[in-house]
């Protein structure tokens, strides 16, 4: 399925959200609230942009027009990385993005997207919903006048696109790599130069040679970015984002002004999209990986154990530095580490163990 046919099937062309926002016209006569949503991703972009648009449309639909959403993709109202300030200031009511973009404001934000050697989607969902994650998210977000909810996940990400083979950890030295969050800090520990770029600027920087490598998401998302035109080595698995949580961050005054019913509707819409985005990603990654390899000559490479051990040692240093920032950071990251142990130990003898034994018997390559 190409990008055009996917968007047509999803019913989300450039006017998709506008059309959805006009649903339930009779309800518009009632008291309504406008919800301006800014995003960190391009419009109509499969895997990230489309789920954001889909959520915006769904909120208006489920509230029967009591909340009318107006969606702006990255650059249409503000720049991708200006979304946080736009909402915290009250100029817009919500952003949709990845909260590790804001780690410069407080390192704790990184925990609510992904940390190196952190939580998978299943573990992240369990932590946020039932192991204290949402309460900690509320505490951090509240300090910035925000209310945040999970609204999507992309699962274990690929390690990235490189214009040369990475055979040892030394091969990372001097490498200019687009990689945000704490994953970028890990790469810096290993001698690389991390660069933070919004999605819409990665391709041009990779093609021009301004960066030597980039991570993005996975085959389904990456295919449409055409990174294969500039880098042929595609590495797995990514240590930096094992379960990348996407978020909607709402201005807290706006959130507090909603009825309890509409708050619960937004929570339900986010939960629906959270699971839906992950399912959509898993359903498409295998097919798009085949297309990258067979149609575009991409060379799939696995990071060696030696490189992964270097990632692990650097990630421990980065995590400790983040924990030492302030008491709230310590509380957040200690909670993540506890979830990694408690929930992860169960995953090890359930999902992970089953998949390994099933795939061995069926001859599914790992």
Automatic annotation (TrEMBL):
Na(+) binds at residue 216. Substrate binds at residues 157, 178, 215, 241. It holds the Pfam family DctP. Keywords: Metal-binding, Signal. One of its GO terms (cellular component) is tripartite ATP-independent periplasmic transporter complex. InterPro entries: DctP_fam, SBP_TakP-like, TAT_signal, TRAP_DctP_sf. One of its GO terms (biological process) is transmembrane transport. GO terms for molecular function: metal ion binding. Residues 1-29 form the signal peptide. This is TRAP transporter substrate-binding protein. The lineage of its organism: Bacteria, Pseudomonadati, Pseudomonadota, Alphaproteobacteria, Hyphomicrobiales.
């Amino acid at each position: 399925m190409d990008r055009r046919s996917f968007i047509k099937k999803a019913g989300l062309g450039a006017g998709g959200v506008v059309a959805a926002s006009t649903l339930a016209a009779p309800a518009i006569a009632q008291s309504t609230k406008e919800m301006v949503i800014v995003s960190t991703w391009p419009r109509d972009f499969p895997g990230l942009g489309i789920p954001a648009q889909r959520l915006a449309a769904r909120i208006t639909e489920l509230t029967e027009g009591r909340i009318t959403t107006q969606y702006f993709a990255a650059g249409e109202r503000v720049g991708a990385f200006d979304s946080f300030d736009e909402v915290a200031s009250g100029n817009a009511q919500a952003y949709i993005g990845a909260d590790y973009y804001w780690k410069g404001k407080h390192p704790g934000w990184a925990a609510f997207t992904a940390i190196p050697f952190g939580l998978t989607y299943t573990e992240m969902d369990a932590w946020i919903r039932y192991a204290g994650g949402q309460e900690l998210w509320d505490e951090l977000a509240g300090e910035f006048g925000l209310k945040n909810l999970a609204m999507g996940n992309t699962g274990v990400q690929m390690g990235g696109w490189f214009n040369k083979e990475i055979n040892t950890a030394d091969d990372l030295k001097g490498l200019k790599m687009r990689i945000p969050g704490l994953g970028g800090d890990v790469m810096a520990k290993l001698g690389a130069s991390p660069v933070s770029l919004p999605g819409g600027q990665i391709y041009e920087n990779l093609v021009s040679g301004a960066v030597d490598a980039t991570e993005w998401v996975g085959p389904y998302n990456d295919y449409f970015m055409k990174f294969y035109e500039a880098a042929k080595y595609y590495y797995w698995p990514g240590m930096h984002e094992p379960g990348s949580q996407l978020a909607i961050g709402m201005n807290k005054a706006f959130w507090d002004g909603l009825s309890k019913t509409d708050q619960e509707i937004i929570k339900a819409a986010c939960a629906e999209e959270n699971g839906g985005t992950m399912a959509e990603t898993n359903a498409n990654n295998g097919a798009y990986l085949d297309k990258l390899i067979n149609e575009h000559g991409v060379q799939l490479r696995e990071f060696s154990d030696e490189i992964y051990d270097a990632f692990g040692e650097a990630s421990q240093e980065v995590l400790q530095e983040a924990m030492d920032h302030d008491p709230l950071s310590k509380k957040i990251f200690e909670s993540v580490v506890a979830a990694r142990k408690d929930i992860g130990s169960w995953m090890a003898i359930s999902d992970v163990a089953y998949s390994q034994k099933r795939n061995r018997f069926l001859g599914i390559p790992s």
